[in-house]
Amino acid sequence: MSDRKYKPRTSKKRKFCGNQHTRKILGTIRSVVVPTPKPKKQEITVPDISNVQVKNLDAEYLEGTKVFLSWNIASNITPSAIEGFRIMLSIFNRRSKTEDSVEETTAVRDDKGRYSTTLILKRASKYEIKVKPYNKQSEGQASEPAYIYVSGKKHGITGHISVLAASLSTDAAVVSYEILGDKNESFVNFFYLKKNETVWTQVSKDSIAFRGENSVVLTGLQPGTIYYVFAKGWLQMHYRTSFTSMELPASDTTILNRGLDEELSLKKGKNEKGDDFVDWSDWKIQDVEGYKVTVTYNGKNGSSRRTEVKYLPKPETKLVFGSNTDTVDSVKVEPFDVYGLKGVAKVECVRCDSTSFTDPPLPPSKAERAPAHGPPIVERAEHSLK
Questions:
Q1: 231 pLDDT exceeds 50?
Q2: Which CATH number goes with the domain that contains 112?
Q3: Do both 279 and 338 map to the same domain?
Q4: Of 197, 279, 280, 364, whose CB is crowded by the most CB atoms within 10 A?
Q5: For 267-283, what is the mean pLDDT?
């Protein structure tokens, strides 16, 4: 063996790199971390809304295939009680209705408490729409249905008729029609029906006193009666119809004339043949269909006074009275459009003589005007016949 003595290895003491502050931090690591307790969950009571019903449901077409829905709920229900709404949609076909499809929405509530949302639907479809509220506990009652047709595209108006009727007197009315779109009518027939009756009467030639471009004047109607008017026209390949109604006045005291802002006047005179005439060709009135002319005659040799009513088309703006015609006490002209009479002008004593009711009266004799006692009155005013 070697003479060397075994010397046990002695470990060298390591130096700690750090200061006293670091040693304190390390000491805290050994401390025990105590977990904080979790908060207890609060139980939220969800109200029962099974008796809540949506009211005043309204569907309005916006554009394209968009439809705007709005509705109300009962005022005693807080908005927080409702989680959302289910919208039930059904499409009508020609013979059936599809099953409901359901969409859920939260909707928007305005300041007045009305909810609304916008739907995007299918083109060319007729919809039945219902809405009901829901939350996690229950479902409310469905609203009354709202119906709407969604075209989905812009349609040109083709092949339809619009009809109007307006009274001109107690027994006459103007009936007019308009073709909507680019179709030309082959013919249009008119029918009328009295209220509480069941049989339509077709307008015949005898009852037409005037025929304009798109209008007729019907006479021989019953005063104080409500009439329904029906127009039926053949537009190239299809029949099209339209309805309207009107009520005739019961007496002549009813004012039918709407009047005009401008004052109308008539001109009277004699032509080169010595015939009397009344003229209104200088009138500038928009959309006139024709003229209602009322002429009051007084027969020669003391025959009875009479009144005649004529309906003249728009181009006719002059009346001529032959020399052998009875005296013409007055002429009244009332223009009319599709809505009735508008404006009036009247001229007196177109052709007058001693039998005319409209002649200015002759002054009474002095004996008739003298008082029972006293001097006679001297006539100073002059009288002239125009």
A1: yes
A2: 2.60.40.10
A3: yes
A4: 280
A5: 92
pLDDT of residue 204: 86
Residues 135 and 172 grouped into a single domain: no
Residues 327 and 277 in one domain: yes
Write the CA distances from 10 to 5, 13, 15, integer angstroms: 15, 9, 16
Q: Domain range spanning residue 292?
A: 267-351
Q: What is the pLDDT of residues 151-206, one digit of tens each?
A: 776 655 556 888 999 999 999 999 999 887 766 666 788 999 999 999 999 988 88
Q: Give a yes or no: residue 88 inside a domain.
A: yes
Tokens encoding 113:
């408490």
Q: Of 225, 218, 226, 220, give the one whose Cα is nearest residue 174.
A: 218
Comparing CA positions, the residue from 202, 188, 278 lying closest to residue 242 is 188
**Residue 310 belongs to some domain of the structure:** yes
280-302 tens-digit pLDDT? 999 999 889 999 999 998 866 55
Residue 237 has φ and ψ, to the nearest 5°, of -115, 0
Domain count, the chain: 3
